[in-house]
Amino acid sequence: MKLNTVKLGLAAIAVIAAVLTSCRNDTPIPRIRETGGIKVVYPEGLTVISVKEDTLTFTNRTTGVSKKAAFGDTITLSNGLYDCFYNAVATYTDKQGTAADGEFYGAVTSVEIGDGAPDFTIEAHLRSEKGDFIIEEIFFTGTLYPTGKQYYGDGYVKIYNNTDHVLYADGIALVESKFVSTIKWDYVPDIQSDTMTIHAIYVVPGSGTDHPVKPGESFIICDTGIDHRNANSNSFDLSRADFEWYDVSNVPAHMDIDSETVPNLDKWYCYTNSFFVLHNRGFRSYAIARVPLPKEEYLEKYWYTYTYVMHIEAGDFPMEQEAYKLPNSWIVDGVNCSVETERLWNILPPSIDAGWTHCGAMDHDKTRYFKSVRRKMTGLTEDGHRILQDTNNSTDDFNTECVPSIIEEQGTSISSDGTKATGRTYDGVKPIETDVEQETVSQ
């Protein structure tokens, strides 16, 4: 395999010297930080005073191998296609001149590393301390009947209060992207940097304080809130979930089930005339959002018409399509999903999710069933609440191909042959029996 010594640091000495000088003189660092052909652009409106540490991580998209280097160092990479992630800890001032320490992050995908040094730009984003809900787990793969056939209806999303205060689920919207990570056209107008294109939006009902969620607690949004074991012995019980999405189907052969025990989400829009299910191969992205508009106003104002040219073997075909859109500024948390062998892009931009997560290594991977993606735990608070990792990079933040938490809790099947789950974990990896007292911190 051909190796290429990527000279990230041809200008490193000059850059480092400039940083050291700027720190001594309190002279702001230029908004564009540069080493060789790699540029990092800090957010407009913020002035970076000093960079305590920053790194570039290159992940080979073919092998999955990652290499990390301090910004300005030299790194040796084999030729190939890479995703590059930027992380920094820096002191900055905002528009009001208030100084603070913060974490910056950014990403650029599909960087071709060849014989020459790479040349690309990463937009850095300040990691926000919003203090709102995060997506804890997504179970989109589904279970199988004992015959091995796919069962539908037991998908769910678990949403977690990672703060130290009560949050209210009222008004939280669950959305699924219209675009998939395995198909990429040049959409015009291109709104990805500030807007998510969606084809399903369901909202938690309430007046604002009807659904409190305490620190360290979750609530579950599911497909169908019933005991699925009555239909599939390999499934589990969702009759005590917090909310379900329910669709009045126009297709007699495909009718949805309205649970008697689980309240319905408020359906704002869904693309299908039958009923909505999560993409069971994990090609779509998911987000939770707080929409600051009433339903009628949103549906009136946020329609997106776009064009693209579909390039296929038979020729080039101009296309026009429509969907609803959701401003990224409304998104509380988002997760990109895909599979490595088919992935072409991240639907959510780095400002929302700089990485991606998965169940299964390839399209139609038969090992993906009975598995979910679960957010990593970093420790416990003094009150015993889990602290879940949230760096806005799902590649780092999520454990992949986990036994779903509900299957662990209920001890139900983990395969079509009926093998039962044994043991419980905090995050799909770390056993609950593990002594984590040394990791206990205060929030």
Automatic annotation (TrEMBL):
| Coiled-coil region(s) | none
Record keywords: Signal
Q: Where is the signal peptide?
A: 1-17
Task: Kindly give the Pfam families that the UniProt entry links to this protein.
Answer: DUF4876
Q: Which InterPro entries match?
A: DUF4876
Q: Which domain of life is it from?
A: Bacteria
Comp. bias intervals (Acidic residues): 434-443
Q: Where is this region: Disordered?
A: 413-443
Q: Does the keyword Signal apply?
A: yes
Question: Which protein is depicted?
Answer: DUF4876 domain-containing protein
